[in-house]
Design a protein that fits this description.
Length: 331
């Protein structure tokens, strides 16, 4: 499957959600249900577009567990064994008890990005050179709620403990601002915004917000914009801003919106939708998504990088300044 075909499949799923009246990136998962979807194999959260794909499926099917895994990963962890049968090597239950993915359950397709090298022609020298590329491959995973005999640790509701440590949103915001982040000011006003020139976030006074959750939803949105500054991720929508209402502006707004949703889930706050789900709003997104199949996957990848940039100072502090370890099964 080519990258273009992967984009088209993802876009089709997003369009179906929008046509049903749901904006999938506003709240792609529930903080109360254990946080971001994560891998049974690694225990780490999924990244990029995959949390949105899995979050939509969980909401649609009513899955509670945040854990997802391949058929083989679930079979192994549910106590099945690989044995030779008259049909070749198969996973079997050693005691005949139903284990692993339940019969008849259907998997959910997500994206795995693999690095590869292709031959290309150097435009300056005309020589054939190796060029690194990312190739998309889709594969199936199943939710823990679709399986039998998995350990209780894959079902947070059974243990009474959330999977993700709940982090105070103010701590996340303060740590980011204090470590080469933008400045933040509060003024009596009716809008929140980020300015790349002075590298500054402007927010209305806290008392003007209906709730603390609403305040942090807006603050995380603007923090998402600030990660695009040339001194940080150097994102086109901020570093080379053209004008309000342009395609570039719309892409940047989607990145900031996704960033806010991800940070809200990671800090355990529940908010109402940041944006009004009016027919016109949904129609605008439908038009944009249908017109560019790469829009949502690329925006999700950029939002994930924004979240990582905002969270990294805090993560470094928790690690005692140690370098981060690789934790991505699927980007």
């Amino acid at each position: 499957m080519s990258n273009q075909e992967v984009y088209e499949e993802i876009t089709e799923r997003m369009v179906r959600a929008l046509e049903a009246g749901t904006v999938p990136w506003e709240k792609p998962w529930s903080a109360a249900a254990g946080g971001r979807p994560r891998s049974i194999s690694t225990g780490q959260p999924y990244h990029g577009i995959n949390p949105l794909l899995l979050g939509m499926e969980a909401l649609d099917k009513g899955y509670v567990s945040p854990y997802w895994g391949t058929y083989n990963a679930i079979a192994e962890r549910s106590g099945m064994e690989r044995r030779m049968t008259n049909r070749g090597m198969r996973w079997v239950s050693p005691d005949g008890t139903p284990r692993g993915v339940r019969q008849g359950e259907k998997g959910t397709r997500i994206v795995l990005w693999k690095e590869a090298t292709v031959k290309d022609t150097d435009p300056d020298t005309g020589e054939r050179v190796d060029r690194p590329v990312l190739l998309a491959r889709m594969y199936y995973v199943f939710n823990a709620d679709q399986a039998e005999q998995l350990p209780d640790s894959y079902y947070p509701a059974r243990t009474g403990e959330p999977v993700d440590q709940i982090r105070e949103p103010q701590e996340v915001l303060d740590t980011y601002l204090a470590n080469s982040g933008p400045t933040l000011r509060h003024v009596e006003g009716d809008r929140a915004y980020y300015q790349a020139g002075p590298d500054q976030i402007t927010m209305p006074e806290r008392s003007q917000f209906k709730s603390a959750e609403a305040y942090y939803g807006a603050a995380f949105h603007e923090a998402g914009h600030s990660t695009g500054h040339p001194s940080r991720l150097n994102r086109e929508g901020i570093a080379e801003f053209d004008h309000f209402g342009s395609d570039q502006y719309g892409r940047e707004e989607l990145v900031a919106q996704m960033t806010s949703a991800m940070l809200q889930a990671e800090t355990g706050i529940e908010t109402e939708a940041e944006f009004e789900r009016s027919a016109a709003y949904l129609q605008n997104w439908l038009t944009a998504v249908k017109g560019d199949v790469s829009l949502v996957p690329q925006a999700a990848a950029q939002a994930q990088r924004a979240v990582d940039r905002i969270r990294e100072p805090q993560r470094q502090a928790e690690r005692g300044g140690k370098a981060p370890e690789a934790d991505r099964e699927a980007a």
